[in-house]
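quick one before i forget lol
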Amino acid sequence: MSAFDPITHRLRHGCQTMAFPAGPPPALPDRHGGALRVEAAKCADGCTACVPVCPTQAITRTPENPVALDLGKCIFCAACVEACPTKAITQTSNHQMAVRRRGDLLLGNPGEDELRLAVALDEKLKKLLGRSLRLRQVSAGGCNACEADVNVLGTIGWDLSRFGIQFVASPRHADGLLITGAVSRNMELALKKTYDAVPSPKIVIAVGACAISGGPFIGNQQILDGTSSIVPVDLFIPGCPPHPLTILDGLLRLLGRMGSLK
C-alpha cells in the first residue's frame, strides 16, 4: 500500500454527501409513509373506526368535529389509515413535519388538514447565533431509536456540520438542547440542571413522540409526558422515530436556512 492509496480511494468514490437542501431530498423508505393528512370532510357520519385502533390515543372524535389527530402523540403505525373506510386519513410521503407550536401538530380540529410548518427564529436570535448552532443532546428516557436517527446526521451522507450545526459535550458550550425520550422522573432533575447550564438566550428542540407528549408511555406514573412539562420548547419534530431528513428539515427551518444554501 502506497501513501497515495487513500487519496486515490477518495477520488474514486467522489462526494458521498447529499445535496439537500440545494438539491431534491432523498426519497423516504416505502415503509415510512411520511406525514399524515386529515380530510375531516370525508368522515362518515358516526364513524369512529380510527379511534380505537390508535395505540397512543392520538385520535379523537366529538359530535362537533369529525376527527382530530394529534401528530405529537402519533407513532405513525398507520393503523388509522388502514381502518378508515373513507380514506379521511392518508399518508403523504412528505418528510416535512417540524412545527414551532405544540398546537400546530393537531390536525382536523378545528378544520386543519395539513401542518403549519416551522418558521425561523426571530431576527435578533438568528443574528446572535450567526451561521452556527451548538446543541447538547439529552436522552431523557428514550429507547435509542430517536437518538440513533439524530446520530445518523453526523455521518458522511448527511454531514450536519456543513450547516454549522454541531453537538457538544457540555451544555455550557451549547446554544440549546435537543431532547429525546419520554422524560422519565429519574431524568427530571438532570434535564432541569442541563437546561439551566445552557447560557441564555437558548433554544430547546423536542425530537420524537416521546419527547413531545410521552408517546406510547403517556399517562404512566413514571413519565412526565414530554419535554414541555419541564422546560419551554421552541421546535417540535414528530415521529417514532423521525426520519433524519425530518430532523434536518426542522433544524434548517428553525435557522431560516431552507433554500438559502448553494
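fyi The chain is about 20% helix and 15% strand.
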